[in-house]
Design goal:
Helix content is 18%, strand content 39%. The chain is an alpha+beta fold. The chain is globular, with a radius of gyration of 16 Å. The N and C termini lie far apart (41 Å).
Length: 137
């Protein structure tokens, strides 16, 4: 009877628990990227605050490396110095030249993490310099 009273399976209860369980990163991570699932999340103290969202990342020869990194800088209207001025809107850099940014969700990158425009805007507006980014396989 308790399950019926709460409406088990309703959007109000289940998805948040499922999302939190699905984010494979530690409590310190403010952003979590799962390379094998092609998904990313924003987090706070181990709790999912946004996501999962679909991503694409590095193609063969340009793999996005796993590890724990920190956001080092952001540029809302970045142009790639390595790849002919290619636009990288809403860039959040966390591992040298590797960033979350708006990009194709069908084509793999040269190591960056492509997000849809709404997701890229959310990551850009949420993440701050020094925030932990955890990348897992």
């Amino acid at each position: 009877p308790l399950g019926l009273a709460l409406g088990v399976g309703t959007a109000a209860v289940m998805p948040q628990e499922a999302q939190a369980a699905a984010a494979p990163c530690g409590k310190a991570a403010k952003a979590c990227l799962d390379l094998s699932a092609n998904q990313a999340w924003l987090m706070n103290n181990g709790a999912v605050t946004y996501g999962p969202v679909p991503v694409t990342h590095g193609k063969p020869g340009y793999a996005t490396p796993p590890g724990t990194f920190k956001v080092t800088w952001k540029d809302i209207d970045h142009k790639s110095s390595e790849f002919g001025g290619a636009p990288m809107p809403y860039s959040v850099f966390f591992n040298g030249g590797i960033a979350f940014h708006q990009g194709s969700l069908t084509q793999k990158s040269h190591g960056c993490v492509h997000l849809s425009k709404p997701a890229a805007q959310k990551f850009y507006n949420t993440l701050r310099n020094g925030d932990v980014v955890q990348v897992v396989r």
